[in-house]
Amino acid sequence: MTMTGSTEMLPNFDNKIQPQQLFEQLQKNTIQIKQVVSCIKKRSTFASWMTENIQKKECCFFEKDDKENDSVDTCKCGYPKNEHVPEAIKSEDFAGETWDKHRHIHEVPTDAFGDISFGGLGLKTGKYCRVSTDTSPEILYKLLTEQWKLSPPNLLISVTGGAKNFSLKARLKNTFNRGLMKVAQTTGAWIITGGTNAGVMKHVGQAVRDYALSSSMQGQIVAIGVATWGVIHNRDALVYSEGCFPAHYSMDTKDQGQFSCLDNNHTHFLLVDNGTQGRYGVEIELRTRLEKCVSRKHLGNKGSGLTIPVVCVVLDGGPGTLNTIYNAILNGTPCVVLEGSGRIADVIAQVAGLPVSQVTIKLIHQLMKKFFGQEYETFQDDTIIKWTKTIQDIIRMSHLLTIFRVGPDNQGDVDVAILQALLKASRTSESLGIERQLQLAIAWNRADIAETEIFTEESQWKATDLHKAMFSALVGNKPEFVSLLLENGVSLRDFLQNEDTLCDLYKQLPNCFFLHKLARQVNKSNSFDRRRRLAFSIRAQAHAGEGFSLTHVSYVVRHLLGSFTQPLYPPKQRDSNISMEDISASLSMSQVNSQAPLTTDTDEPKRDVCRDLFLWAIVQNNKEMAEIAWEQCKDCMSAALAATKILKKMAQEGSDADEAEEMLKLADHYEKHAIGVFSECHNSDEERTKKLLVRVSPVWGSTTCLRLALEADDKTFIALTGVQALLTQIWCGELSVYNSVWRVLACMVFFPLIYTGFLVFRRDEVIQRETEKHEEIKTMEKVTGSTIYTNSVGHSSSHLKPLNGWSKLFYLYSSPQVKFYWNIVSYFAFLFLFAVVLMIDFQDVPSGSEVLLYIWLASLVCEEIRQLFHDPDGFGFKKKAQMYINDLWNILDVLSIGIFIVGLVFRLTTVLFYAGKILLCIDFVVFCLRLMAIFTISRTLGPKIIIVKRMMMDLFFFMFLLSIWVVAYGVAKQGILIHNDNRLDWIVRGAVYEPYLVIFGNFPTNIDYTDFNIDSCSVNGTDPLKPKCPVLNESQTPAFPQWLTIIMLCIYLLFANILLLNLLIAIFNFTFQEVQDNTDRIWKFQRYELIKEYHSRPTAPPPFIILSHFYLFVKKMVLCRPSVASKKFKIKLPVNEEEELLSWEALMKDRYLLSTQQEQSQSMERRIMDTANKVTTINDRLEREEETSSDPVVKRLARLEEQVAQSAKALQWIMDSLKSQGFAAKEAQSLTSSTTDESPDTYASTSEKEDGFHVKARQFHYPGSKLTRFPVPEEKVPWETSFSSYKPTYYPSEDQVDGSESEDLDKYRNPKGRTGIRGRGALRQLGPNMSVDLVITRWRDGKPPVLEYLEVSGESQGAFSLPGGFLEATDHLPKDLERTMGRTLYKKLNEKLSDGEKAFQGYVDDARNTDNAWVETTALNIHLDRGSQIMEDIEKKLMKNQGHLRWQEVSSKTRLNSNQRDILRRVAIGHNRKF
Questions:
Q1: Three-state SS for 432?
Q2: Peptide bond just before 571 cis, omega within 30 deg
Q3: Residue 190: CB partners within 8 Å, gap ≥ 6?
Q4: CA-wise closest residue to 1010 among 971, 1045, 969
Q5: What is the dihedral sign for C-alpha 1237, 1241, 1243, 1249?
Q6: Would you state the pLDDT for residue 813?
Q7: Could you give the CA distance from residue 998 to residue 996 in angstroms, rounded to a whole number?
Q8: Taking a C-beta distance cutoff of 8 angstroms, is the pair 669, 623 a contact?
Q9: Rounded CA gap, 1213 and 1208, in Å?
C-alpha cells in the first residue's frame, strides 16, 4: 500500500490538529488497546482455570416437596421448578426413586465468579466465587494465593459468633474494631468470617470499613467471607458462565426475608454450594477444612519449620458457636472470647476462671438464664447438661482459652489478647519451643508481644540461641525486633563473626540499586559461563553459591565510596573468580597511596561487625535498620560521613527519581548525625576533635573523616567551627592563629623581627599554657599543702623546648599562609613584567625582560604539572585529573598557559609576529582574571566570588533570551532598510551589532528621514568603509516606511531595555538573596582546596620555585626516594590511643543521642500527641462511667441472690440434721425424695473427689467408632451421686451374639465413675484390662551423665510410646512386643521382668474406658548397664530397624502421652534426675 493510500484511510480531522499530535494520540490509543487486550487475555485465562478446577452443585432430579405450601412448585432441594435444568424435570434415569441429596445432586463447572461491585458510596469491589462443598481446600488456597494474588498469611483469624444482629457496647466495639484491624495489619493476617451482613460478620465488616477510612493506616486488610450460596439474597446477579468483571450486587436488606445479603466490607467471598437452597450452615465443614489446610502451610520459608497459626475469635453466639469453640480447642486452635459481647461468650467468660468442679449444672442454668434471656425458656435439661460438659472440657484446656476483658483502665487491646493466646498455646505445646514462639512474633512483627510474653525474667537465653531470630529480623526488615534482640544479649560480634552470615544477608537484599550493582559485579567476575544471565539473577546465583563473596561487595562499595579508599573486604586467595582488572586496580591503588606501607594478609585488621551491619543497611536505603546499627558503631562519625558519600553516589547513578530523593534525605540525616557528634566532641575537647578529623579510619578504607566529608560534598559539616579551626591552624602552620596579617607581612619582609617576639609561634603558646597551669598547681599546693597535684600531672611540659632561631625561620617561610602571600607578590610581579613586555619591550628579538617572562611562565607550568601528579590521598591519576579539571581556576591556568604557548610560537615567526602579540595580549586578560583566585581566602571577598559565578550562569541564559530579540529586530530592520547587501561584515554589523548598541543608548540615524545623510553611506555598497544606503526613491530620499521602523524600534526598546534588563536585574537580585545565605558555607568548603594546595606547595615562589621542582625531580626519579607524608591531613594513631579516642567519641555520641531525644520529647509535635492521648483517656473514662452507672444496682442484686442462696443452704442443712435425728415428717421425706439431682450436697461432695475424676474416659467421641458418649459433667462422675437422666450409649462387642454380655455388665463398674458409654467398648474384656509399660533406661556418657529411655514407634505415623501392651499372662510380656523388639530381645526382657522396679500400678485414664471396662497398667523400670548383653542386642536392633526404636533423653520435652509422661516423671525421680 502506498503512503497516499494509507493517509486517505485516516479519518478527517480539523486542520488545527498537527500530524505530530495525531501520531502521539494514536500511540496513546495503541497503548490503551494493548492494555485492554492484555486484561482480556488474563481474564480468559482465569475463566478457563476456574471452569477446570472449581465446581458447583445442582439438583439433577426434581421431586416436589409436599411440606411447602407455596403456589410455586418447590423441589426437596429447596429450589423452585423453574430453576432446574430441563433434564432434571424430565429425568428418566431416576424414575421411581425418592429424592436423596447424595444421589440426586451432582457437580458441574461453576458459573459464578469474578469481581463483585457493591453500590453506594466508595464503590467497594471484591472477588467472589461459587464453590462446591466437596472442593479440595488445596484448590481454594491456590485460588486465593495464585489467582487472586493474595500474599500467604502470617496468621489466620477465624471470627465466629452470633449470626443474628446483636449490639456491642460502644467501648467494646471500638476496642474490638481497633484491635482486630491492628493485628491484621501488623501481622499480615487473613480474617475469615461467614461473609453475610448480619451478626458478627457485620461487626467485622464495619471494622474493615473503619480501617479503610482511617488515614493513619496503610495497606489492605484481607477479609474472606465463607458463606452458603443457597441463602444469599440477590445471588442471580452473580451468575455468568464466563465470569463477571464486575458483577453489580445490590444489598437489599429490607426484602431479603429468610435470606442474607453479602457484607459489602469484605474483600473476598467463597460461596459454598451443596445444591440446596435456604439451608444455613452448609459452609461450616468446608470452612473448617480450609482453615486446617491453611494451618498446615509453612510460615515464611520452609526452613523455619513453622506453620501458619490459627486463632478463633468469639463474639456472642449460641449453641452452634459453643460446638465451634469445642471443636477448635480439640484441634489445638486457641480461642479468644470477648466478655461483654453477649450470650455464650459471656457464659464462658464467667466460668473461665473457676475450677472445673465449681462449674455445675445449676451455675450454667443461672448463666444461661442471665445471658440468653427469653431464649433460655426453649432449652431442655438434657441440653443444659451437655453444654455443661462441653463448657467444662473447654475451660479445662485453659492454655487454649483466653478471655478478653475491657479493664477499668482500658488496658490491653484485642490484638494483644489474640497474639498472647497464640503464644500461650504454643508455650504449652510439646512440639513448639520458645525459639519458635520468637519466630512467630517476628513473623507478626510484634516486638511488644515478644517483650512482654517471651523475654520475661523467667526466660533464660543464650546469645547464640537468638542468632536465627536476629537473621530473620534483619532479612524481614523488623528494626524493632533487632533492637529488642540487642537489648536481650545478642552480640553482633558473635552473630557476624562468620563471613557466611554476612554473605547470606547480602544474598537476601531486597530489590534495590545496590543489588543491581552487585549482580553486575558478580556477573562480571563469572562472565566466562554466565554471559547470558540477567543482572537480576543475583539471588539465584547467591543461593547456588556460584562465586559470590564479600570481595564483590567490597568492589561495589569502593566504587561508591571512592577510589581513594582501601577495599573494606580485601580479596583473599580463595576468591579466584575476581577479574585480573579488579586485582590490578587494587594493586595500583595501594602503590599510589604512599602514606601506608604495603600490608600482608596477616596484618589485615579485624572486621568491624557494627560497620558491616551499618553498611548492609545503608546500601539498601533502610533508615530504621541503619539507625540501629549506627548507634552500635564506635567510629560513628566516619560511619555517618561514609553513609552520606555512598547514598549521594547511589542517588546520582540511580534511575528512580523517588528512590534517589529518599537517598538524599537519608544522606542529609546522617550528615546531621555527624554534625551533632562533632559538635559534642568539639564542645568537650577541641584537640581530640581535631585528631578525629584527620585520623586514619582502618574500618572505612584507611581514609579520614575530613576526606569523606569533602568527597561527599558535606558543606555544612565542613563549615563547622571546629573544622574551620583545624583548617585555619593548618593554614597558619607553626605560626599562631592569633597573629595579625600585618605582623606576618612585616616579618616576611624583615625576618629578624621574629627573634624579638614580634611574631608568636604555636610552640610558644603551648609552653605558656603549660607554664600557667604549672603555676596554678603550685598555688594550689601552697594553699592545700599537698603534692598530689604535682604527682598526678607530672612533667608533661618538660619535653617541649622553645624554638631556636633556625627553626623559627624555617617555620615562618614554610607556613602555607606565608607561601600564599609570597605567591601573591610573585603573581603581581609577573603581571607587571607581562604588561611591561607587551606595552614597552616587545621587540623582534626577545629582550632580557621577555626571556625572564618566559622563564617565569616555565616555572608556572612546572607547578601545574606538580599539582596534577601530586596525589597524597591515593586517588589515582584518573580521579586526580578529574578533580584538577573540575576546578575553575585550574581551567583558567591551563587556558592561559596554552594561549601563551601558542602566542609565543606565533611571536617567534616573522609572518605571525603581530598575531602572536595579539594572542599574548588576550592571554594577559586571562591571567588577570586568574588573579581573582587570591580573594578566595578572604572571608569578605571570597563569598562574593561565588555569587559572581552564579550570576555568570544567569547571565549566560539571559543572553540567550536577549539574542532572540536582538536578531529578530536586527534582521527585520536590515531587510527593510538595505536591499541585497552582500558584504558579510556590514550585514553582521547591521543585524547584530547595531541592535545590541541600541540597548545602551546608541540610536541609529538611518531609520528616520530627518537624520538621513546620503554622504554617510554608499549608494551601491562599493565603499568598504561606508555602509550601503537604504532603498532610495527617485528624489534620492529614503523610500522605506518611516512609521514602521520607528514603531519597531519603540517595541524593541520596550522589551529589550525595559522588560529584559529589568528581568536581568530581578534575576541577579534573586540569585544574590538565594546564594547569600549559603555563600559562607560554600566558601568555607572551597577554602580547603586552597589551604591544601599551599600546604603541599614548595616554599619558594615563582620563578624561584623551579629550583624546588628540580630538587623534587632528582629526589623522586634519580634517587628514587619516597616523599615524606604530611601528618596534617592524615595521621595514623597508635592502637591504644585510637581505642581511647574511639571510646571517647562513643561517649560523645551517647550524649548527642540523649540530647536529641530530649529535644524530640519537648517538641511541639510531641506535646500535641501527648495532649491528644490525654483527651482520648478522658473520653474513655467518661464512656466507662456512662456504661457502669448501673453497676451498683447490679451488685446489690447479686448480693441479694447470694444471701438467698446462703439461706437456702442453711435451711437444707437444718432439714438434713432433723432427718438424721429421726424428726423428719412425711412431707419432708417426700420432699427430699423428690429433690432434684442438682442438690447442693452433691456439689459439695464432688469437689473433694475432683483429683480422682477421669477426663479422657468422658470424651464425647469414642475412639475407633462413630458413637458419642452421653455427656457426664464433672459433678456427676461419682457413682454415689444421683444422676436420674443418665442414659449412657451402649457399645456392644463385636463377638457378642446371644446377649450374654449385657447380663454381666452389672458385675463390673468403673472404679473412677461414669464414662457416658456402656459395654466392653474397644477393650478386650469387661472389668479391668491389665497392661504393662516398660521404662528401659540407661546412662549416656556426659558431664553430668544423661538418663535415657527406650521408645518404640506406635501405630500412627511419627508417634512414639513406651514399649508395652495388654497382658495375656502376669509373668510374660505382651505378644505384640515380640514383633517390635524381636524374639531374642523379647525373651531376654522377659527374663529381666522380675528385676524391674515398679514405678506405677493402677487405673489409667484411657479414652477406651467404659462404665464396665477399663485399663489398669503396671509400669516397670528396667535399668540396663552399658556392658550388658541386652544393651548389645538393643544396639543391633536399632541398627536394623532404623526409626522404629530409639533412645531419648528423660526430660519434660518428651512427646509421650500424658499418662506415660507421668510414669516417666516418676522414673526420673527414682534416679534422682530433674524432669
A1: coil
A2: no
A3: 150, 153, 155, 156, 157, 184, 222, 224, 294
A4: 1045
A5: negative
A6: 86
A7: 5
A8: yes
A9: 9
Here the cell at position 826 is: 610573585
Our measurement of the distance from residue 382's CA atom to the centroid of its chain's CA atoms, rounded to an integer in Å, reads: 55
For residue 843, give every residue at least 6 positions away whose Cβ sits within 8 Å of its Cβ, in sequence order, or none: 850
- Residue 437 and residue 86: Cα distance in Å, rounded? 58
Q: How far is 670 from 689, CA to CA, in rounded Å?
A: 18
CA-to-CA separations, 237 to 56, 110, 234, in angstroms, rounded = 16, 14, 6
Q: CA-based Rg of the chain, rounded to a whole angstrom?
A: 48
Band the pLDDT of 756: cuts 50, 70, 90: confident
Cell numbers 439431682: residue: 1237
> How many CB atoms neighbour CB 292 within 10 A?
13
Q: Where are the alpha helices (DSSP H) in 978-1018?
A: 984-988, 994-999
Residue with cell 606576618: 744
Q: How far apart are CA 1366 and CA 1373, in angstroms?
A: 8
What string of DSSP letters covers 192-214?
A: EE--BSSHHHHHHHHHHHHHHH-
- Nearest-CA neighbor of 387 among 400, 403, 371? 371
Q: Among 277, 279, 275, which residue's Cα sits nearest to residue 60?
A: 275
Q: Is 621 left (phi over 0), alpha (psi -120 to 50) or beta?
A: left
Lookup: cell for 213 = 477510612
State whether residue 1268 is helix, strand or coil.
strand
Counting Cβ atoms within 10 Å, is residue 330 exposed (0-12), middle (13-18) or buried (19+)? middle
Which residues are bridge partners to 811 per DSSP? none
* Type of residue found at 1085: F
C-alpha cell at 704: 579520614
The mean predicted confidence, pLDDT, of the chain is 79
How confident is the model over 775-791, as pLDDT tens digits?
887 787 777 766 655 55
User: How long, in residues, is the chain?
Assistant: 1475
The one-letter amino acid at 954:
D
At 1423 the three-state DSSP class reads strand
Q: Phi/psi at 712 (nearest 5 deg)?
A: -85, 0
Find the helix or strand (DSSP H, E) in which 311 lies. Answer: strand 310-315
Q: All 3 cell numbers of residue 598?
A: 604495603
What pLDDT digit, counting tens, does each position of 1024-1065 carry? Answer: 888 888 877 776 777 777 678 788 888 888 888 888 888 888
Residues 747 and 604: beta-carbon distance below 8 Å:
no
3-state DSSP helix/strand/coil % of the chain, to nearest 5 = 55, 10, 35
- CA proximity to 227, closest of 183, 253, 180, 259: 259
Residue 956 identity (one-letter amino acid): F
By CB atoms closer than 10 A (0-12, 13-18, 19+), residue 546 is middle
- CA–CA gap between residue 1242 and residue 701 (Å, rounded): 84
Q: 816, 731 in Cβ contact below 8 A?
A: yes
Between the alpha carbon of residue 704 and those of residues 693, 695, 701, 1327, the distances in Å are: 6, 6, 9, 89
| pLDDT score recorded for residue 1341 | 81
Those residues with Cβ within 8 angstroms of residue 158's Cβ, 6 or more apart along the chain or in another chain: 192, 193, 287, 291, 310, 311, 312, 313, 328, 333
For helices 499-507 and 609-619, the axis angle rounded to 10 degrees is: 10
Name which of 1306, 1301, 1263, 1278 is nearest 1409 in CA terms. Answer: 1263
Taking only the tens place, the pLDDT of each residue in 523-575 is 777 654 444 444 444 444 444 444 578 888 888 998 898 888 888 887 764 44
For 1320, which DSSP code? -
| pLDDT tens digits along 1206-1239 | 788 788 778 777 776 665 444 333 333 333 343 3
Q: How far is CA 92 from the centre of its chain?
A: 65
> Angle formed by the axes of helices 550-561 and 609-619, to 10°?
70
Torsion of CA 940, 946, 951, 957, to 10 degrees: 180
Nearest CA to 1075 out of 955, 951, 1171 is that of 951
Residue 1134, Cβ neighbours under 10 Å: how many?
8
